[in-house]
Amino acid sequence: MIHPGSVEDKDPSARDIQSAALTLKADFVFTIMEAWSLRPDKIPQMNAILDQYGSLGASPYAIDTCSLMLETRHGMWAAQPQIKPRGISRKKRTIGVVWFRYYSEVAGRFMHLLPRKSPLIPGS
After folding, report:
1. Which residue of 53, 69, 88, 98 has the lowest C-beta tally within 10 Å?
2. Which domain holds residue 80?
3. Would the pTM count as exceeding 0.85?
């Protein structure tokens, strides 16, 4: 389980996922996390918003999103659909259309969770 709290919570979560992937000799890692993003018109001001509010979630421009990431030996596919209310309920929510994009180079705490296979050891 990913603990989305502070940096102190997130780092052990990433290490736990890496450890599980190594133990299971995983071929892929798929993560689903609730995340904050900005409206498209506010993305150019991201640094100023972070300086002013401290985080995207604390700003009035934040939107709820669902971060979906599939890491394989061939790269990373990611999608971030917006989370929207479902019907008139205040508690039920749903996500919009999911479009995955391929990324050959990524960085971040929850990236590179899949152990590297050694080309020298057959079957590793």
Report:
1. 88
2. 7-103
3. no
